[in-house]
Amino acid sequence: MTGRRALGRRFGWLWAAYAVSAYGSGLGFGAFPMIAVLVLHCGPAQVATLAAAGRAVGALVAVPLGPWVEFRRKRPVMVAMDLTRFAVLLSVPAAFALGLLSFAQLLLVSVVTAAADIAFKAASGAYLKALVPPADLLVANSRFESTTWTSTTVGPPLGGAAIGLFGPVTTVVADAVSYLLSALGIRAIGGTEPPPARTGAARLRAGDLLAGWRHILTHPALRPLFFNAIVVNGLIMASQPLLAVLLLGPLGFAPWQYGLVFAAPCVGGLLGSRLAHPLVARFGRHRVLRTAGALRALWPLGLACVQPGVPGVVLIIVVQFGLVTCCGLFNPLLATYRLDHTAPDRVARTLAAWSVSSSAAIAALTALWGLLATVTSPRTAIAAAGVVLLATPLLLPRREHASRDELSGAAGVSDVVDRV
């Protein structure tokens, strides 16, 4: 039933734009590390630097983008970020064709795209809150989540085949073009978007840079969810390179097996996102949020037990399927919860602060867990991440908090969100 609910033509264009860029990103998944290894002959240290430094510096660059986005019309910002990503990504195949591609260029492109991603997410979240009625936000976010997992299932295998047939920069071209098509889709949404009201000084102030974090850290429900999300996502992402080393090295997994154990479980993400709305309708949002958040912390420890051969393949698929299903259920609930508990005039800053913190945490934990794996072993580091994750359900909010819209309707005052 949720799949057939009509959210309007304008949301349809927004969803289409999201879908085309998601599939482009799926096709381009892992392209930069592959180019670094196959074309530039980089070693493990440089590949790790490309993954961690690009994300970390991009997050730092994006810090002032939250308030910048907040006080501008959101659709032009989204189009600008799409066109920025299109241009910088297209510079990679251009440099490759001219024989000028370098590691420094890959690093710079990684930084720019990471910062543009954060700005785009901040603008799109604020635009979605204004476009879709509060009662339909979960349905909208569930559709985005379904699209993400579908593209993750389909994109990487097709991208790998395309690289094998047409060369190492093929999927970068596809990813770049997808952002151009996304920009065209956002332009096609049409309609008018009123300019956001600017309160206070006309120029960007230091306080504006911290407004998103201030809202998150003073909110009794968003604060625990924030710490839960950055720790869980950071540890899951930090474990992925170590798992690749373990599977492709000592355990002797073939490349096709490695691709299979990560692509096949993504069906669980589609399942989880489709279940979000009906489960919330039956059991309530808070109960489903806490249950899904707790369950997703239980699975990663099983990855430390993987063995060679078919049993190892089966174990990883089962563990990843459980993890991805819980994430597919939890993520749209989290996205909706954030929008519900954030005033329209601070959505962009809040989402930007959240994304900057998440990117920085992933970069820091990836570096830290890489050091741990060097001192001990990849399996030990993966097990350590799994053990720490078992404690993360303690960070989930223990009780339901009324949304800003509910409180505003009851109190009838504009500043009630500050007292939630």
How would you summarize this macromolecular structure in one to three sentences?
This protein is mostly helical and 420 residues long. It has helices spanning 9-27, 31-38, 44-62, 65-70, 74-97, 103-131, 137-166, 170-187, 206-218, 222-248, 255-263, 267-283, 285-295, 309-340, 347-375, 378-389, 404-411.
Structure characterization notes:
The chain is built from 17 helices and no strands. It has 420 residues and is mostly helical.
Give the topology:
Elements: H1 9-27, H2 31-38, H3 44-62, H4 65-70, H5 74-97, H6 103-131, H7 137-166, H8 170-187, H9 206-218, H10 222-248, H11 255-263, H12 267-283, H13 285-295, H14 309-340, H15 347-375, H16 378-389, H17 404-411
Main sheet record: none
Written as H for each helix and E for each strand, in order along the chain, the element string is HHHHHHHHHHHHHHHHH
Quick one: overall form? globular
Alpha carbon gap, first and last residue: 33 Å
Radius of gyration, Cα only, in angstroms? Answer: 21 Å
Beta-strand segment tally: 0
Overall mean pLDDT stands at 84
**Strand fraction:** under 5%
Helix content: over 70%
Q: Count the DSSP helices.
A: 17
Structure characteristics:
disordered C terminus, mainly alpha, 420 residues
